[in-house]
Structures are given as C-alpha cells and as structure tokens.
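ok so i was messing around last nite and threw this chain in just to see what happens. nothing serious, just curious
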Amino acid sequence: MLFTVVAYIIALISVIISYWLDKKKTKVIIMNMLNTLKNLLPLVISVLLIVIPLVAFINSERIVKILSGLRGIWGVIIAGIVGSISYIPAVFAYPLSAQLLSIGTGYAQITMFISTVSIICFVGLPIEIKCIGKRVALKRNIMGFIQSLCISYIMSMILSYF
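result:
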C-alpha cells in the first residue's frame, strides 16, 4: 500500500514538473493518455467480467486440490497451466505454495506454479494483444512458459540437494 501511494505521489510530482516546464507538451501527453484509457476501458471491463467469476471459481482450496501431490513432468505442466490461468498476486502464491509443499507436492511443480503466476496471465491476454500486438503477446507468454519450465527444472535440481 505504501509503495503504491509513493508511486502515485512521484507520478503526480512528475506531471506537475512537466507542466511547469512545457505546458503544451504536457497537455498533449495527458490527452493521449486519456484517449488510450478511453479506448482500453471496454476491454478492461470485459476482462474484469471474466476475472471476477474466475477468482471465485479458482480459489486457494481448489488450487491445492488440483496440485496436491503432483509429481513428474505432467505435474509440472498441470501446475504451469493452473498458474497461467490463476489470477492471483504472487504474494498470495507463496503461502499457498508452502501449503502445497507440506502436503507433498514437488519442488518443480511449486516452482512452476509460482513462476507462471508471476509471468503469465492468460486472462489479461486480450489487453496485452491490444497494447503490444497478438504476435508479441503470444510470443511473450509462450517464452514465459518455457522460461518457467527451465526455472522449475533448475530449482528442483538445486532444492533436491537440501
């Protein structure tokens, strides 16, 4: 919360300084920002309409039930898919991962879940496609999944020694 407040204060101070330095450019930039927001708002609202029921359906108990005791490559892939469609902040994924670890889920699966929750968001893909293009958005998510697989493998190798 404090970080968010500080970020908003810094942004506001930056806009004030920009306005003080060049009023015309600042007004143009603010108008461009408002037009972009106006164009993205319907998409954001539609994504929220998808996210709200998804969050209600994919809660922590359901994630634990799906991922509990998973092992092997199929467990890693399932953990990656669940992490990719879960719309939860990474901060909440850590306690959930501790719970998964306590019931026997493997390090690779937990690492894959945390990594995909942090890197990939299929729910937000329409917004990403609108902002950066379909090709780049799909490449970013595919590369994120591959990166998560690599991280999962490396972490499982490291943590298996401890």
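not much to say yet. Residues 58-159 form one domain.
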